[in-house]
Amino acid sequence: MTTRRFEVLFLCTGNSARSLLAEALLRALGGDRFGAWSAGSRPTGRAHPLALEVLRERGHDVAGLRSKSWDEFARPDAPRLDFVFTVCDNAAGEVCPVWPGQPMTAHWGIEDPAAFEGDDALHKLRFVRAYHELRRRIELFTSLPVEALDRMSLQRRLDEIGAIDRNGAAAHAQGDEARSDHEETIR
């Protein structure tokens, strides 16, 4: 039995850091089951050096990673996308091109490591953190039985993955726990 390959596009504004990290991660973790791509609404035209460094240090192939426009994926000869994930808040709020085939979408916001200004070691640490946050989400995504879930169930799971915070817990669950602790203190 042949398994269908699912095409995934990660979107960011500049396509220089987070979306490139996600593309490389899915290529490594998704095997033959997933095709990985990335693009930006306003691409910088270059991959951030720290993104490439973090990927290389973790054994990822960075050949072919480049900053590109999302317009490339709206062309008739582009891969037919099954999933489109925004990894930055700016891209999530923009009007995207019309993707042929109506891919499923979700927002998996990650803090922009490229925007950090300060100490070089701390700057690199931001990239490492983004890498691990994306890795956790992509591991969860690739473990989903995509073929077996109906569209609504799959959308719910994609949204839940997007709500995972950097500690691996659902962000809303953390808020519920804090409210519960506060209520116990009041009693």
Q: How would you characterize the overall build of this protein?
A:
A four-stranded parallel β-sheet has the order 2-1-3-4. It is globular and about 45 Å long. It has one domain: Response regulator (Rossmann fold, 3-Layer(aba) Sandwich), CATH 3.40.50. Helix content is 42%, strand content 12%. The protein has 187 residues and is α/β, with parallel strands linked by helices.
Tell me what the CATH architecture is.
3-Layer(aba) Sandwich
Structural class: alpha/beta
Number of domains: 1
Tell me the series of helices and strands, N- to C-terminal: EHEHEHEHHH
- Give me the Rg, rounded: 17 Å
Mean pLDDT: 86
Give the topology, please:
Blueprint: E1 6-12, H1 18-29, E2 34-40, H2 49-57, E3 83-86, H3 89-93, E4 104-107, H4 120-143, H5 151-162, H6 171-186
Parallel strand pairs: 1-2, 1-3, 3-4
Helix pairs in contact: 1-4, 2-4
Summarize this structure briefly:
With 187 residues, the chain is an alpha/beta fold. The chain has helices at 18-29, 49-57, 89-93, 120-143, 151-162, 171-186, and strands at 6-12, 34-40, 83-86, 104-107.
List keywords for this structure.
globular; 187 residues; alpha/beta; Rossmann fold; 42% helix; disordered C terminus
